[in-house]
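Methods — Computational structure assignment.
A single polypeptide chain was analysed. Its primary sequence is given first, followed by the predicted tertiary structure written as structure tokens.
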Amino acid sequence: MCNTVNSRKAAMIGCGFVGSASVFALMQSGLFTEIVLIDADKSKAEGEAMDISHGIPFARQMKIYAGDYDDIEDASIVIISAGAGQKPGETRLDLVHKNVNIFKSIIPEISQRNFQGILLVVANPVDILTQVAIRLSGFPEERVMGSGTMLDTARLKHALGEHLSVDSRSVHAFIIGEHGDSEVVAWSSANVSGIELSKFCEMRGHYKHKENADEIAQMVKNSAYEIINRKHATYYGVAMAVKRICEAIVMDEKSILPVSHMIHGAYGIEDVVISMPAVVGADGLETNVPIVLSGDEALKLKESADALKEIVDSLEL
């Protein structure tokens, strides 16, 4: 990473529900000493920066302010949450053209600056927009990632924790593929502190493995729709996912996280961005992590990737 990068500085582009909630989570985390908020509506960015700054006396000293693209040059992470939100009845893929057009105005602004840090895409559809960001920015692929299935995976762990009456942090399982309707639960590699999931289920008195698995997978996949129907947007869960990714980067943790990134050859998938576990550290993506998948899971993953690739290939970039 070049020496002009301030490892304790982040920028948030987009100050809607997700952007603001993410900055609020980051303010409390103590990871950064400086966060700049950028939005097409400057007064919105100023208002959010003021409001969040008033919590600093209860956290750690830092600077939070509204700025413009010139302020991103020395940031270590630029997070993009700007874009149209998902409305009731809309899928994440329905947002493609609206948000690709927004990215066509944002990404060139970033690449024109001497930005040397990590680009983290949070706007939906996150896998497609991460691929758009790679293409439009010209940045090395390891420096561009999306929040991917971080939130889906957290929802899965939460649901399994509730089902098994066990701490969700002891559940090790991934959702992979699209952050959306074609997502795949990697049941084959799921375990609870190293104990095979089906064995642990039986220890807790659950024997209907297929029925329970199908029910939990469906609940996780539909949870965003359920939340949107009730409160019109989801933002707290993804804000915590953003904080977790930033933590892995700033602390150079080499954590394995299911983020959106470019895949070259794994499971027969080529040149398409999907969510798969990867080692994440200070320089971004270090390596893809192959996990155990059944034949059916690998097939569904390939179908998920093919669906995304078809959409990306149809875009005019």
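Note: The first strand starts at residue 6 and ends at 13.
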